Amino acid sequence: MRISRGRECGRDATELADELAAIISIPDMEPLAVPVRWETTTRPVVDVSSGLVMTPQRRAFAGVDDDRTVQRITGQFRAIPAKRTVIIGEPGSGRTSMARMLARGLLAARRPGRAVPVLLPLDGWDPVTESLPGWIVGTLAGRCYRGRRDVPQRLLESELLLPVLDGLDAIPERIRARAVLELDRLIGTARPVVLTCRPADFTGLLRDGCPTLHDTPVFTLLPVVPGDLAPFPELEQLHDRLGGPVGQALSTPLFVAVARRVPSRLGEVRDLATRLQVESRLLEAFVAELTALAPPARRRGRNAPEPPELAHLRVREWLAGSAPPARRRRGPPLAGLRA
Questions:
Q1: What is the Cα–Cα distance from 281 to 274, expressed in whole angstroms?
Q2: pLDDT tens digit string along 275-317?
Q3: Residues 158 and 165: beta-carbon distance below 8 Å
């Protein structure tokens, strides 16, 4: 939904924020197949030698995408004085699910005149060609203001936007240092923000260029446990050997979702030697299913289905966060699955 053009120049910024909050939405995704498990840190301490955040006080939680879980995540974030956090986890561990639940909860709990949470997947940003504030303004302008940048610019400058930045690892490693610099400039000393990334990327943030995150509490995504698979006997049997390649592959909600989509192919992965082989075989089967379901193209053109080998490559690149910008802007090939 978009906001019609009006006389914004003389209006109070908080009124503009209330108007945005009334129409903005958080896109839905396929329901969670298994609970998302996470651990929160309190009283964070930075280990300078390793760059890792350590904490002697940890609490573990689990929940599906329901009102109770959304309220719990939202309450944990609102208890953070600086209103700034990082959600870390390996690809497929539930970072996007967590970010969406948090954004949805913050929007529901928002009071008039306060900042509006805005979910922004970072795979659409090229830090070489555009600053992070400029990209946020441009994205919101296109999404809600028919391309006009004046209102989102004013909201950002008034700190009435709470950016939920999903997927630092979606930015290619060769330009990620530039992205970290832009992120540090955006946060400054006090701006609220939510960021999702892999543990290795968070270590790099602490070590190389984002000192404002050194004292930031962290939500750490935890692996799927065997009991989570009880509703799916065919997967529970495969997961029996927890330390084996299949158990390792099924330790993330994403690959649980992929495996559930290809039940007839599960026997092929039972005796594979490595986690990478298991994940690749599951992805090949999943891409084959998508290709078979896609309607045949009448002519080769912009909207023609991708060849299976290219679709598989995009899946791997997307999971690894290494897709080139031209392909990243097409969107994640597993958009219908929880990640």
A1: 11
A2: 999 999 998 888 888 776 655 554 445 555 555 555 555 555 5
A3: no
